Backbone:
């Protein structure tokens, strides 16, 4: 499999009204990059997301389909990313979705990937799924495909049993399937990926609940259904940490009163500081969600989203007279060939991209004190 060219890793997201746009979502490690590699017929050369900074959490990949149609795959991070906080992830997805919808760019569908190797739906996988459902909303579920991955790593019987549990449980996949979502198995090859992707070619465009809430409702991210779902997760962690802090402070006061071993007091002091830091972090994450779409767009580093047709018909349509017009329009400087053609992008290297961790946070002593006395 050859590597991807920079022209196929879209530096700008400027689809035409005839183009097909499909978002790929799922938790980290569910196989999003592998799936996109299969669709494009080239090796992305990355594991996870190619980010230039931790705020740019959405990537775009373009597949030339015909002279009038390109397929855009939108690569998104999961809510368990090691270098992005959950608030960063929701802001990045909300920024792209909201900005696109404001410019009349709509999705043809969303593919949600889930590892069939996971024996149970717990922890990060459950959080990812619940936020995803709120992000989509019931009206968009007819344009959602729920796809299991990594079937090659489990026995057929185990895979089928886990798939049945996903479908039989309403809070997992059951509700979504009953509201129009499709269910597929991805077998880690190009044929399987293209079969799943091609089903969106005839789908009507759709507006997600988050787009409606941010654009039409003018809500802050925290007040969207997805934002409230994430905030409920923060509250669970907050309550747990609050109990830990109260217990640690009580132990510390008792140790100081009894003049226990100085090393024990130091350990308790360190434990108290660690819990305070975690509590402050949760507060800061929640505060990050108190933001409007306009503010998110103003501070975003995502590639520019342009309205369909903003370049005019001549500039937006590939020319048959040569490659200059295509290059000028931001399209690949090559004929519109089937991307499945063998060796089409042979020898082209992956553009260097990386990501940076989120900045450190500082404890908010006053807010922590209010927790303790409340």
Residues:
């Amino acid at each position: 499999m050859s590597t991807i060219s920079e022209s196929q890793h879209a530096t700008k997201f400027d689809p035409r009204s005839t183009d097909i746009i499909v978002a790929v979502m799922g938790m980290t490690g569910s196989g999003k990059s592998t799936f996109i590699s299969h669709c494009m017929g080239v090796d992305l050369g990355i594991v996870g997301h190619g980010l230039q900074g931790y705020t740019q959490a959405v990537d775009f990949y373009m597949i030339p389909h015909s002279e009038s149609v390109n397929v855009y795959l939108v690569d998104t991070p999961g809510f368990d990313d090691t270098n992005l906080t959950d608030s960063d992830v929701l802001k990045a997805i909300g920024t792209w979705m909201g900005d696109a919808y404001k410019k009349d760019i709509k999705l043809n569908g969303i593919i949600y990937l889930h590892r069939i190797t996971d024996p149970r739906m717990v922890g990060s996988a459950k959080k990812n799924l619940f936020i995803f459902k709120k992000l989509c909303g019931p009206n968009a579920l007819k344009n959602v495909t729920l796809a299991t991955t990594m079937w090659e790593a489990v026995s057929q019987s185990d895979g089928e049993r886990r798939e049945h549990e996903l479908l039989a449980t309403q809070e997992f996949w059951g509700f979504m399937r009953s509201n129009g979502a499709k269910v597929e198995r991805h077998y880690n090859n190009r044929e399987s990926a293209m079969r799943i992707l091609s089903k969106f070619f005839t789908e009507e465009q759709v507006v997600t609940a988050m787009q409606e809430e941010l654009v039409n409702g003018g809500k802050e991210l925290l007040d969207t259904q997805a934002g409230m779902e994430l905030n409920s997760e923060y509250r669970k962690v907050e309550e747990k940490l609050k109990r830990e802090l109260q217990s640690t402070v009580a132990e510390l006061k008792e140790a100081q009163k009894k003049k226990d071993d100085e090393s024990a007091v130091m350990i308790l002091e360190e434990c108290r500081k660690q819990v305070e830091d975690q509590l402050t972090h949760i507060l800061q994450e929640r505060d990050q969600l108190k933001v409007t779409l306009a503010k998110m767009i103003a501070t975003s580093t995502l590639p520019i989203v342009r309205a369909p047709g903003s370049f005019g018909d001549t500039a937006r349509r590939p020319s048959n007279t040569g490659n200059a017009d295509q290059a000028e329009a931001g399209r690949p400087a090559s004929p519109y060939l089937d991307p499945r053609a063998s060796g089409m992008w042979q020898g082209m290297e992956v553009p260097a991209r990386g990501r940076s961790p989120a900045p450190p946070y500082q404890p908010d002593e006053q807010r922590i004190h209010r927790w303790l006395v409340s």
